[in-house]
Amino acid sequence: MTGLTERTVSFDDDTLHDECGVFGIFGHEDAGALAVLGLHALQHRGQESAGIVTYDGTQFIAERHLGLVGDIFGKNSLHAQKLKGANALGHVRYSTTGGTTVRNVQPMFADLAGGGIALAHNGNLTNAVALREELVHEGAIFQSTSDTETIIHLVARSRYNPVVDKLVDALKQVEGAYSLVGLTSKKLIGVRDPWGVRPLVLGELDGAPILASESCALDIIGASFVRDIEPGELIVATKDGIESYHPFAPQPERFCIFEYIYFARPDSVVEGRNVYEVRKRIGAELARESPVDADMVIPVPDSGVPAALGFANAAQLPFELGIIRNHYVGRTFIEPSDRIRHLGVRLKHNPNRAQLEGKRVVLVDDSIVRGTTSKKIVQMVRDCGASEVHFRIASPPTTHSCFYGVDTPNRQDLLAHRMGVEEMRQFIDADSLAFISMDGLYRAMSEPARDGSHPQFCDACFSGDYPIELTDVSGGRKNAQLSLLAEVA
Fold this sequence. Notes:
The chain is of the alpha+beta class. The chain folds into 2 domains: 17-254, Glutamine Phosphoribosylpyrophosphate, subunit 1, domain 1 (4-Layer Sandwich); 276-449, Rossmann fold (3-Layer(aba) Sandwich), CATH 3.40.50. The chain has 17 helices and 25 strands. Helix 4 (128-137) crosses helix 5, helix 5 (147-157) packs across helix 6 and helix 9 crosses helix 10 (305-315). The two termini are 33 Å apart.
């Protein structure tokens, strides 16, 4: 990843992680409490930290802490009680740039010449290091190692006015993927990068506009879904209503396809598609492409459940819960000894022996990353007496790292980068192993098959086709317009 610090990987951390989730609401008397609930719904997008900034009409109030939303802002929480005001901006984080420290917790806040601004960011800037070095050389003092602070410095140094023009000026200097929400004393601002890699939706509750990473954050508070923010669109909500701008040069849409495979919550509607139904269609395509003579289909919980249902329905095989997940184990549960490290997978997954013994089993999971967890799960199912274990993966092989807001290992640590399918099968000790094809994945998305020249999504983790520059160089571009909010043809 293009990060400013290296991450420490948990001993059982063999999955991909999205960077964060954002939630903003403007003009509601219960803004702080609603932001807490919205972040609860987005907890799957980041479990390392949570923060909320509110504005009470006279001052900004910030509560930013390490931990889960419920632990920080739960019942009788003093942190939650401080969140006064009708405007709020919240963020949950799983860091891809910057380490896990309080100073990196978002939303980030700064007092600018025109007033305060809080920013919450989902994504990853691919030229953050070069921009940071340039800003430091010019005298900027950074308080964090997050790429989001780079945007704040660029906003502060912009010679444009008002603050929305400053933000556009800043974003025209960055490269990468972002869905960004900002809060000032008078505005709630939302913007997506021109490729639309990361999600952002607009909702409404009692006349108050809401911006959130996913529609599930609207559902939890009884808000209405209005629409997706368009790629390259910037919207500004004030007491007078909502204005929409398209200040960036248009680009081919490249929404992250892994949102449908794994990141988004199954009950969310993303870019017009119900995530649960998409995952079932992926499983059905996988069954048609790679059938297997077996007794039952078992998901690797929880992310493999919808695809396994689709696989079982298409294959006309029984669907069973052969693996039970413990939802109450944190990522830092214990300091692992060698023995505990070996048994680590059982902290989260336990086999249902009565269902497995003597059976030919199809295991369905969303992806294989390093392969260490897959190997342990196969062994665990075999130890319970399964006669055959077949592994089916509801995504193509993950052969490349992501640089757009997903925490992936270095490419050499990805199993599919180092091995072919047969080598991977031997490594995890399955009787057979198959991944859905790229064409099959696009069929499940109800899109034309990917032809290599005009993909409908960002699928760089499978194809290596990166739509946005990865070179960590300054991407600033001069613009002579008096207002940067002018529509770009």
